[in-house]
Write a structure and sequence with these properties.
By secondary structure, this protein is an alpha/beta fold. Helix content is about 35%, strand content about 20%. The strands form three sheets. The protein has a seven-stranded parallel beta sheet with strand order 8-9-7-6-12-13-14, sandwiched between helices. Its EC number is 3.1.1.61, 3.5.1.44.
Length: about 350
């Protein structure tokens, strides 16, 4: 008899007791580790390589859906999710990166005793079905909701260099969990370093952060970081927008270049454009800002203040264009982005 190794990610002591009792009644299952929050849970997935995960969606230290998708992005693994009701269960399934790996079970309502035979029976049934269900090996990296160009969509483009990783962390972690407007970022970094930056930011924020892939569809709720050594552009194909990566000559001494990304957005018609310049050395981005404003005077330019910039090079070059709409401290950039999206006639959901 093969033993099924189970990891529990559960914060509530009573829920943990209930689940533990249900599992211990079946000798085929073995609890190999427990975690009381999302961050700890994700680390233990990597450390213990369980066969199945029991995840209570109501956990601290990381949004429950976020840790669910972090796990699925790392590995396609069966996950039984405990929810408070049908509506919360539907929300979880709608947001899951790989629905084939996920099954929902409702937690008992009212007073939760240490043993409930009815719950235990259905709980074990759910586990058995998950184990029997073939799991798709390939990861689901894209949302099922690509942006359609027949709407007044919004794009946020960000350029940064020296001090950028810390600045990006501040901006992205301060955005609302349900912020859906796509964000494209050029961070001056050599090849290889941008992937680890994307993974770290993806772990720290509720948003989906990834290193951009050539020709992929730009989707809502996703942050794209240009790979080191490649320019990143926005390209419109048919009814949707795509990422285009190239290895053309460096611009302003950089590849990726902020100006290249900004110029590509300037070409887009009937979309809301928001450009952000954060801390960095040099002047990359200033010419792109000029072109954005020239092509669309309603483009919004947000600049990081001198006082909060590690290096006031790129922000100063943009400030000198006299085209900046808002100069704000780093900690206020995220609030300004939410405000601007609302002001442009949409909301933080992008369209």
């Amino acid at each position: 008899m093969n033993i099924i190794k189970i990891l529990l990610i559960i914060h509530s002591r009573k829920t943990l007791q209930l689940v533990t009792k249900a599992i211990e009644d079946n000798k085929q299952y073995q609890i190999i580790a427990t975690a009381t929050n999302g961050v700890e849970g994700f680390y233990k997935v990597i450390k213990y390589s369980p066969d199945i995960i029991i995840l209570d969606i109501d956990i601290p230290a990381m949004n429950g859906t976020k840790v669910l998708n972090n796990i699925l992005d790392y590995q396609s693994i069966p996950i039984l999710v405990l929810t408070r009701g049908i509506q919360q269960g539907k929300q979880v399934m709608n947001q899951a990166l790989n629905k084939d790996c996920v099954t929902i079970i409702e937690k008992p309502q009212g007073k939760m005793d240490s043993y409930q035979p009815s719950f235990s029976f259905h709980f074990v049934q759910k586990i058995e079905r998950l184990i029997e269900k073939p799991v798709e090996e390939s990861k689901v990296l894209e949302s099922t909701n690509p942006i359609q160009s027949n709407k007044r969509d919004s794009f946020i483009v960000i350029g940064t260099s020296t001090g950028g990783p810390r600045a990006l962390q501040t901006v992205l972690t301060n955005l609302p969990d349900d912020f859906q407007t796509p964000i494209l970022i050029v961070q001056h970094m050599p090849s290889g370093f941008t992937k680890s930056l994307a993974k770290r930011l993806n772990f720290l924020t509720s948003l989906q952060v990834k290193e951009a892939v050539d020709k992929e569809v730009i989707v809502n709720g996703t942050v794209y970081i240009a790979p080191g050594g490649k320019h990143m552009e926005i390209q419109k194909l048919d009814s949707s927008f795509h990422i285009q990566l190239t290895e053309l000559s460096p611009v302003n001494g950089h590849r990726p270049s902020v100006d290249v990304l900004f110029r590509s957005l300037a070409k887009m018609k009937n979309v809301n454009k928001i450009a952000v310049i954060l801390t960095g050395m040099g002047k990359d981005g200033a010419e792109g800002v000029k072109l954005l404003k020239k092509q669309d005077k309603e483009t919004i330019i947000i600049n990081q203040s001198k006082e909060t910039s590690i290096v006031y090079g790129m922000p100063k070059a943009v400030e000198d264009t006299n085209l900046v709409d808002y100069t704000v401290p780093l900690t206020q950039v995220s609030d300004k982005l939410v405000y601007v999206i609302e002001m442009l006639g949409g909301d933080k959901n992008g369209y």
